[in-house]
Amino acid sequence: MKIILDAIYDGLKEYLAEKIHEVITVRFLGKSSVNDVDIRAHSRKHGMVLVTQDKESADIALRNGIKCIFVSLGDIAELVDSKLLQRIRIYPVFFYHE
User: Fold this and answer.
1) Cα separation of 5 and 98, whole Å?
2) Is pLDDT above 80 for 32?
3) What element of type H or E holds 89?
């Protein structure tokens, strides 16, 4: 699978590259600032899945047949909450606070 990460997810590249064949970030496109149109065009041209937190860009990508994963702040908050709940069950004393 080929993935292009929007700038906000730049730090995930190394982790995902271990699990996925090809991962690039928008910085790979070689411009100091890359607009959403260029990112979507690159995704389409190279058959990449766009991972973004930009709802509008994700909607446009999907309407134009570009594979896209929209990761909302709500998605991230749910993940953090889930991880916190797991830790509380494992280490309840550590998280106890009066």
Assistant:
1) 41
2) no
3) helix 73-90
12 by Cβ neighbours in 10 Å (0-12 / 13-18 / 19+) ranks as middle
Per DSSP, 48 falls in state P
pLDDT at residue 98 above 60? no
pTM of the model: 0.78
State how many domains the chain has: 1
Distance CA 2, CA 17 (A): 10
Its domain, for residue 32, covers 2-72
Is the Cβ–Cβ distance between 24 and 5 less than 8 Å? yes
Task: Output the pLDDT for position 44.
Answer: 94
Tell me how far apart the alpha carbons of residues 69 and 53 are, in angstroms, rounded to a whole number.
Answer: 8
Q: Which amino acid is at 63?
A: R
Evaluate whether 48 touches 3 at the Cβ level (below 8 Å). yes
Place of tokens 């766009």: 50
